[in-house]
Specification:
Length: 162
């Protein structure tokens, strides 16, 4: 394998795992608080590797999430493209933010992601409880430092060839 293909495989695997975490069944009380694993993963990779993982990959992953969750086709794809575009646009700033400021930025990106899903559902006439929108934002924000540390460890191992 070439160096480029070797570097992409761990990223693809983390995206596949995040999609699997989005569809794994949870108890009814925990379902509204499921973190947006795919959004968190794409934000991280778009911030760290913006030339490789950008809006096009977010579109493909979003379509896969739409099919896996049985939602309106293109709903997650549009929302993921938007937050990945913002992440790529400001990736140099975000990379130097202290953890608290980066976590606040991720909170804003997740809130924007959920707002876009809320807006698309509203246009389509689909009613969803507000906890289904705010729960993932709160849990995703709380888990962001852990997700970032985990994905940074994977990125460092790939870069150093371990």
């Amino acid at each position: 394998m070439s160096r480029g293909a070797t570097g992409r495989l761990p990223v693809i695997m983390t995206i596949i795992v995040s999609i699997m975490l989005m569809v794994v069944p949870l108890p009814g009380w925990a379902e509204p608080f499921r973190p947006d694993w795919v959004a968190l993963t794409l934000i991280y990779w778009a911030m760290m590797m913006p030339r490789t993982w950008s809006v096009g990959s977010a579109w493909i992953v979003g379509i896969i999430v739409d099919v896996a969750q049985g939602t309106i086709l293109g709903q997650h794809a549009l929302a993921l493209c938007f937050i990945v575009f913002v992440t790529v646009r400001f990736h140099l700033l975000m990379r130097v933010f202290p953890m608290q400021q980066l976590t606040a930025t991720v909170f804003a990106l997740l809130a924007l992601y959920q707002f876009l899903l809320f807006w698309i559902n509203g246009v389509a006439g689909i009613e969803v409880a507000l906890t289904n929108y705010w729960g993932p934002v709160i849990t995703g924000t709380v888990l962001w430092p852990v997700v970032m540390a985990f994905l940074s460890g994977i990125r460092m191992r790939v870069q150093h060839g371990r």
